[in-house]
Design brief:
- The strands form 4 sheets. The chain has an 8-stranded mixed beta sheet with strand order 7-8-10-9-13-17-14-15, with helices on both faces.
- The relative contact order is 0.11.
- The chain has 14 helices and 19 strands.
- It has about 500 residues and is of the alpha/beta class.
- Bound molecules: ligand BES, manganese (II) ion (MN) and zinc ion (ZN).
- The site of ligand BES has 16 residues, from helix 11.
Length: about 500
């Protein structure tokens, strides 16, 4: 799992001269043959006009995700395909998706290499295309036996973007690879089964990142967490013999003393529900309950590669939620490290218990902002489905910035309400707060619970229960981890770094 990216080059705009087994040409909806760029027209001349024929005959309309293969050439690209980017102006988010689909086609064909062309290159669009190519090339092999050599399709190991070879494009390419590496790391870690992706494994992955980029690595085991009085996190971990891990990775790219941005992730390596055990059907998906932590790891990998001129801390809490003789029970009361008492109503509401101690812990950094990502509630999947991430928080500017960062990278987020009135649902007779508020407004009461611990800094909470992984194929990505919200975190950090 050492390489998180494929190698990507700039190929120049002479499309007919690109020696690739497969060239994808991105075209928007309603892009008539008259409006084709000079580069596409020159290619079409070599291909005997097959692109124009496809467009004029309405075989290809440029609709989003539409793919149409035309004739290839003997001396240039062996195969040529058109990929639609849909209506409206060409954005980075659209190109990310189109480039991923192109790469997925190359993976299926086993071409080993793919080239991607689009008209209108700038820093953002080129970077997005590079990210997309990598996202489409991503494949999970860690615990699968490779098919015999003769039946094996070549993996996609290289790609190029058919744009001018100049310094600004080279910089966009390198930034794209940095972002892609974060996504790749995040998805690979997330996809690993719970018996391999243990809390120790996540901690070791963090230590690896810290080592590569000169970040400070801190990890606490059960004893260390006990010293920090993390009674809430420890409550979740008390049912498993596996050592839980609290991890913090500090990157100092800014001035010493500059308030850091803190990323916090839920890292449940597996969530059985504990004593309030989940039904068996589909429980295997709960290996993805560490996607928040995986996103923090991915974002830190990218931060290190981009050398952002700000201070960033990545924090996560890793454990498994298990039923056992030592497990937490409904009715138990635990005390979090900020002193607040929590009554356990349902042991399956464990993510918020882990986050309670993480959010209390990070106050010591005097953060410029804290952003947490968590596969926190099934109610989020019911509320917004799998397309949008729910955003909550205490700072409207931060929430707005998270939403616009998400929009830019195609990870759309939607602000959810945090009305005080919902607090009565989590009022307890024996503690300061209950860990669940009943069936209604489940994502909101979860966020309000977190708010009790996210005090003293601007805070945004991303409930990625629906968006961090997909149980079905997404056309541009296979089923499994989506890498969300790595892109959102990075985009937000970059926007703040540029301020
Ligand atoms: N990890 C789950 C939330 C989840 C559910 C994520 C489905 C992705 C898909 C979380 O720990 C959980 O179990 N939440 C409970 C809370 C309830 C007991 C108040 C839930 O959503 O059912
Ligand atoms: Mn749970
Ligand atoms: Zn969970």
């Amino acid at each position: 799992m050492a390489d998180y990216t494929i190698s990507v080059e700039l190929a120049g705009e002479d499309l007919a001269a690109i020696k690739t087994p497969l060239l994808f040409v991105a075209l928007g909806n309603g892009e008539l043959s008259q409006s084709l760029s000079g580069a596409v027209l020159a290619l079409d001349a070599v291909l005997g006009g097959s692109i124009k024929t496809a467009i004029d005959g309405r075989d290809f309309r440029g609709a989003r995700d539409e793919v149409f293969y035309v004739t290839g050439s003997a001396n240039g690209p062996k195969r040529v395909a058109l990929i639609g980017t849909g209506k409206g102006s060409l954005t980075g988010a659209k190109l990310k998706r189109a480039a991923a689909i192109a790469a997925r086609h190359a993976v299926k064909l086993g071409t080993g290499d793919v080239s991607f062309y689009f008209d209108g290159v700038n820093k953002d669009t080129l970077e997005s295309a590079v990210v997309g190519l990598n996202m489409g090339a991503w494949k999970y092999w860690e615990t699968k036996t490779l098919p015999p050599e003769a039946d094996r399709r070549a993996p996609l190991t290289s790609a190029s973007v058919a744009v001018a070879k100049n310094d600004s494009n080279a910089a966009a390419l390198s930034d794209g690879l940095a972002v892609a590496a974060g996504y790749g790391l995040s998805r690979s870690v997330a996809m690993l089964p719970g018996n391999i992706c243990t809390p120790d494994f996540l901690a070791d992955t963090a230590e690896g990142i810290a080592g590569r980029y000169g970040m400070k690595f801190t990890s606490l085991d059960r004893a260390g967490m006990t010293k920090e009085k993390m009674g809430s996190f420890l409550g979740v971990a008390q049912g498993t013999p596996q050592e839980p891990r609290f991890v913090a990775v500090e990157y100092n790219g800014g001035k010493p003393g500059d308030a850091p941005y803190v990323l916090v992730g839920k890292g449940l390596c597996f969530d059985t529900g504990g004593i309030s055990i989940k039904p068996a059907l589909n429980m295997e998906w709960m290996k993805f309950d560490m996607c928040g932590a995986a996103a923090v790891l991915g974002a830190m990998e990218t931060v290190g590669r981009l050398k952002l001129p700000i201070n960033v801390v990545g924090v996560f809490g890793a454990t498994t939620n298990m039923p056992s003789g030592t497990a937490l029970k409904p009715g138990d009361v635990v005390q979090a490290s900020n002193g607040k008492y929590i009554e356990i109503i349902n042991t399956d509401a464990e993510g918020r218990l882990v986050l309670a101690d993480l959010l209390s812990y990070v106050k010591r950094y005097n953060p410029a902002a804290v952003i947490d990502a968590a596969t926190l509630t099934g109610a989020m999947v019911i509320g917004l489905g799998t397309k949008l991430t729910g955003v909550f928080g205490t700072d409207q500017q931060l929430i707005d910035d998270v939403v616009s960062a998400g929009e830019k990278v195609g990870e759309v987020a939607w602000q959810m309400p945090m009305y005080e009135e919902y607090n009565e649902l989590i009022a307890s007779d024996v503690a300061d707060v209950k860990n669940t508020g009943g069936r209604t407004a489940g994502s909101i009461t979860a966020a309000l619970f977190l708010k009790e611990f996210a005090e003293g800094y601007p805070w945004a909470h991303l409930d990625v229960a629906g968006s961090a992984y997909s149980e079905t194929d997404l056309v541009w990505l296979p089923k499994g981890p989506t890498g969300r919200p790595v892109g959102t975190m990075i985009e937000l950090l970059r926007a703040r770094a540029a301020q």
